[in-house]
Write a structure and sequence with these properties.
The protein is of the alpha/beta class and about 150 residues long. It has one domain (about 1-150): 3-Layer(bba) Sandwich (D-tyrosyl-trna(Tyr) Deacylase, Chain: A). The chain is about 25% helix and about 40% strand. The protein has helices spanning about 40-50, 65-70, 100-115, 145-150, and strands at about 1-15, 20-25, 25-30, 55, 60-65, 70-75, 120-125, 130-145. Strands 1, 2, 3, 6, 7 and 8 form a six-stranded mixed sheet that branches. Strand 4 and strand 5 form a beta hairpin. Helix 1 (about 40-50) packs across helix 3 (about 100-115). The relative contact order is 0.30.
């Protein structure tokens, strides 16, 4: 799995003219599922997202998590995170999981964040044509990848 995490003061997703998810402070997370990913990668990525300490404490050090700040997550599925542009200029998406597999793991991550880590999660529409708006604070953007787990 691959996750791009942005610390935001606000974020929203719109699909077909309707807002499907909107948060104040927290994370906008774009999540890509690799064709070989399993629940093991989903467990890892959810734990990392939930415990990521990229909010500033009273000393202006990035030392606080979402739980410490009461933030939420806007979680958007994004297969294009597995676009391979190493040959030519048109991305090749063979490494991205097929939708029927990806949606199961995407929903599993959502349930882990909500139920296990007790974080409010809003979402986009899996496979939908979405418009995402966000205000990145910092800017802070972190990339997580479970590729090393697949090699073991």
């Amino acid at each position: 799995m691959r996750a791009v995490i942005q610390r935001v003061s606000s974020a929203a997703c719109e699909c077909e003219g309707a807002v499907t998810g909107e948060i104040g402070g927290g994370f906008a997370v774009f999540l890509g599922v690799h064709e070989s990913d399993t629940e093991q990668q989903a467990d890892y990525i959810a734990k990392k997202i939930a415990n990521m300490r990229i909010f500033c404490d009273e000393d202006d050090k990035m030392n606080l998590s979402l739980s410490d700040c009461g933030g939420e997550i806007l979680l958007i599925s994004q297969f294009t995170l597995y676009g391979d542009c190493s040959h030519g200029n048109r991305p090749y998406f063979a490494a991205a999981a097929r939708p029927e597999k990806a949606v199961v793991l995407y929903e599993y991550v959502i349930s882990l964040l909500r139920d296990k880590y007790k974080i409010g999660v809003k979402t986009g529409v899996f496979g939908g044509k979405m418009r995402i708006s966000l205000v990145n604070e910092g800017p802070v953007t972190i990339i997580l990848d479970t590729e090393e787990m697949r090699k073991k």
